[in-house]
Amino acid sequence: MPHIELHLHTKAGSADSSISVDTLGERAAEQETGGLLVTEHWRVWTEGERALFEDRWGVRVYPAIEATTDAGHFLVLGAEPGVTLPHDTTALLEHTRTRGHFVVWAHPFRHYFDGVHASARPPFEADLTPEELSHHPAFAMVDAIEVENAGSTERENALALEVGRILGKPLTAGSDAHDVEHIGARRLPVAAVPSALGELVELLRELSLEGI
Question: I need a surface site. Which of 11, 44, 64, 76 has the fewest CB within 10 A?
């Protein structure tokens, strides 16, 4: 069965990644991954870059970016190359909605249980129940929630899954790979590799808990 991998980064657009584009292509081809959602931190791969990658490695790449806001990180599928996105969460989600982009809240509870500085914590009060957490307004505006992230702790992922179950939204999994060792850490089995972004979005809209 073919697989796709969502949420990863390369040196071509993420300063904190050590993965070169060719290394990603080689490893994905070795793992027989059919499609990648490359979510760089500061740029969207151009159509030409994606075409060259697909021609060389036989692995499809879908246009996306990981946007950083005051509430965390959001994967914006369909973002255009060269775009500058708002850093305010409400402004970002209103912007993406008017353009028909599909948005996933990535690792929403990373550091929620840590004693880190408030600037590094997610935008939730401490010790809230999953039901209370689900009322955050951004959850109502996103299209899906990442509930399995290879860079998050089991406790963080479990909380995301509980909140996702309450909300009944599509749930996704991602490797969040920033180094070679994590490429392929989380993949989704699919009946067929989506041929274009629209097909990928339709697939994600239908994801259930059993698909994770």
Answer: 11
In contact, 83 and 127? CB cutoff 8 Å: no
DSSP, collapsed to helix, strand or coil, labels residue 146 as: strand
CA geometry: angle at 2 spanning 171 and 211, to 5°? Answer: 20
Cα 69 versus chain centre, distance: 14
Low-confidence ranges of the chain (pLDDT < 50): 211-212
Q: What residues does each domain of the chain span?
A: 3-211
Number of other CB atoms surrounding residue 202 within 10 Å: 11
| Domain 3-211, CATH among 3.40.50.2300, 3.20.20.140, 3.40.640.10, 3.30.420.10 | 3.20.20.140
Q: For residue 189, with 0-12 CB atoms within 10 Å meaning exposed, 13-18 middle and 19 or more buried, which class applies?
A: exposed
Give ∠ CA 11-17-22 in degrees, rounded to 5: 45
